[in-house]
Design goal:
two-stranded antiparallel sheet; mainly alpha; 6% strand
Length: 132
Amino acid sequence: MKRVSLDVSGLNETLSRLKDVAEAGLDSTRAVVEEVTREVHSLATGNIVEGGTSLPGQYPKSQTGRLRSSIRMELPGDAGRAVGMVGSDAIHARFLEHGTASMEPRPWLLPSFETAVEGVAGDLKAEFESRI
C-alpha cells in the first residue's frame, strides 16, 4: 500500500490571515455604511426647503419644520453588523414619501438614498483595499 503524506505547515498563519481579512471586510463595510447613512441624513434634511408648495415628485417643502426636525439616523454599531438607518417617526413623513389617495408623493427618503449610494461599490473596494 502506498502512503501519501500531506504537509500543512503554515495552516495556523493562513487561518489567522483569513480572520484578519474577514475583520477588515466588516470594518470596511461598517465605515462605508456609516458614510452613506450620514449622507442620506444630510440629503434628506438639506433638500427640504422652507415655504411654498412642492409639486408631485419633488422633495417636500417645509411648512412647519416638523418633518426635517424629525429625521433621525442610527449609525452602525460594533455588534458585528453594518446597518445604518435614516427615517422619521412623524406621521406625515410616510404620506409625503408614498403619497395618499388624494396626494401624489413628494419623496424625500428614497431619492436621498439613491443619491448617497452612487459609487458605493468603488468606495467599499477602496476602503477594503486600504485595510488589507
